[in-house]
Amino acid sequence: WLGLEGKVAIVTGGASGIGLNITNELLNNGVKVVVADLNGEEGQQSNGSYFMKCDVTNKVSVDQTVSKTVELFGSLDILVNNAGVNLPRLLVDDQGEKPEYELSEKDFDFMVAVNQKGPYLFAQASAKEMLKKGNGVIINVSSEAGQEGSAGQSCYSATKGAVIAFTRAWAKELGKHNIRVVAIAPGIIETTGLRTDAYNEALAYTRGVTVDGLSTDYSKSIPLGREGKLSEIADLVSYLSSDRASYITGTTFNISGGKSRG
Ligand code: NAD
Predict the structure, then answer these.
(1) Which PANTHER family does the annotation name (predicted)?
(2) Nearest residue by C-alpha to atom 10 in ligand 1
(3) For 100-137, how does the pLDDT look when each residue is reduced to its tens digit (9 = 90+)?
(4) 88 C-alpha to center of ligand 1: Å?
(5) At what angle do helices 197-207 and 214-221 cross, to 10 degrees?
(6) Domains and CATH numbers, the chain
(7) pTM for this one?
(8) What is the ipTM of this complex?
């Protein structure tokens, strides 16, 4: 019912977690999907997507991925800017500053490069292609942290907030060319990709619980009483990719089971 058959999409970070699920759901809807991710062999994958090795932080790599997609599949209709990294570090703890909790400058630059520069470069390259045919959709995967701010994740929150600001600005620039730009802001989603020990430690500290008590605590803080399913994110992205969402642009959709309203 979404009418997505035959469309061409790029999903960045589509090799795992949320991106992989978005890829599979778009494939189910008849979309030709290029997965742009760091490690893998170029070519057709077993799920039916086409893998292109790409580093979203590198303009040459991004431009090549977009032009190769158009060369191979004829157009680019949907960009899902999903690749992201999170290296949480608390600024201080109850006892005062703890040096091991400080975010290094290198990690700061790394998160900004992947989460903020990456989507910018991809949107830039993709919009140029979309302008040629006068339509397209760009979907940016932000985070609830980008709307609310998350303790221990100040740099991550800032990069995800930047994505929301890009979304608003691009929607204004590109609307007259029939290119929609939207963002989604997931809350706690059942994926382990970003859940490093440091992530869990920072979250547990913020919530005043032990790392072992985290999942019970998650559930208590979420009105729907559970983490989000990967399929629930993929369903929202598929809908937003389609013409069913033709009057939606510039908006960020919070999808957090009621944990926040965004
Ligand atoms: P994940 O770690 O499972 O997947 C991220 C993917 O991005 C990986 O396949 C990785 O290889 C790829 N990637 C990383 N750096 C890249 C680069 N430089 N170039 C190309 N690809 C790169 O993470 P996930 O949990 O599926 O998260 C996906 C997105 O959703 C991220 O943007 C994340 O910030 C956002 N998000 C996740 C959650 C959650 O609870 N998991 C919540 C809110 C937002």
Answers:
(1) 3-OXOACYL-[ACYL-CARRIER-PROTEIN] REDUCTASE, SHORT-CHAIN DEHYDROGENASES/REDUCTASES FAMILY MEMBER
(2) 13
(3) 567 889 999 999 999 999 999 999 999 999 999 999 99
(4) 14
(5) 60
(6) 8-255 (3.40.50.720)
(7) 0.96
(8) 0.99
